[in-house]
Amino acid sequence: MKQPIVYNTKHDRSYRQLLFIFNCLSEQMWAAGWVDGIESNLFLAAYSTKPVKWGPYTVNLDVACLLRELAERCQAWPDPDAPEGYHRQPADLETVKSKFRKSPKP
Predict the structure, then answer these.
(1) Does pLDDT of 95 surpass 70?
(2) CB of 77 closer than 8 Å to CB of 59
(3) Is 75 left (phi over 0), alpha (psi -120 to 50) or beta?
(4) Distance CA 46, CA 57 (A)
(5) Which of 42, 94, 96, 100 is exposed most, by the fewest CB atoms within 10 A?
(6) What is the per-residue DSSP string for 15-28?
(7) What total number of domains does the chain contain?
(8) Which residues constitute the domain of residue 58?
(9) CA-to-CA distance for 69 and 85, rounded, in angstroms?
(10) CA-wise closest residue to 89 among 73, 68, 74, 99
């Protein structure tokens, strides 16, 4: 029997929900399981005070709020700097916030 992946975040279930939403948005918006740059673009949307345009789509405030709530609960975000194939690994949320404070564009 295959063992489930454990992401070792504060709340693994919340992190899995966050990943699920990333996958759904990527599929819905771009017909891709995990579109390149999704980590950065959704982070900017999650911590914005208004809807954020992403290509031809807009991430509304309800979705942004849900992403932010899950990230705060598990204190993690998919690593925007991870090498190809490892993008679902969690990065510490405060580290990601710090990165985007210095350079707010994805």
Answers:
(1) yes
(2) no
(3) left
(4) 15
(5) 94
(6) HHHHHHHHHHHHHH
(7) 1
(8) 12-101
(9) 26
(10) 74
The answer to whether residue 80 sits within a structural domain is: yes
For residue 4, is it within any domain? no
If one counts every other C-beta atom within 10 angstroms of the C-beta of residue 84, the result is 6
Spatial separation of the C-alpha atoms in residues 45 and 106, rounded to whole Å: 11
Q: Is residue 6 in some structural domain?
A: no
Q: What is the rounded CA–CA span in Å between residue 60 and residue 69?
A: 14
Q: If you ran DSSP here, which 8-state letter would residue 1 be given?
A: -
The structure tokens listed for 85 are 């194939």
Phi, psi of 92 (to 5 degrees): -60, 130
Summarize pLDDT for 26-69 with one digit per residue, the tens: 998 888 888 888 999 999 999 998 999 988 889 999 999 999 99
* Residue 16 lies inside a defined structural domain of this protein: yes
Give CA–CA dist 104/26, Å, rounded: 21
Spatial distance between the Cα atoms of 46 and 63, rounded to a whole number of angstroms:
8
Residue corresponding to tokens 């740059």? 37
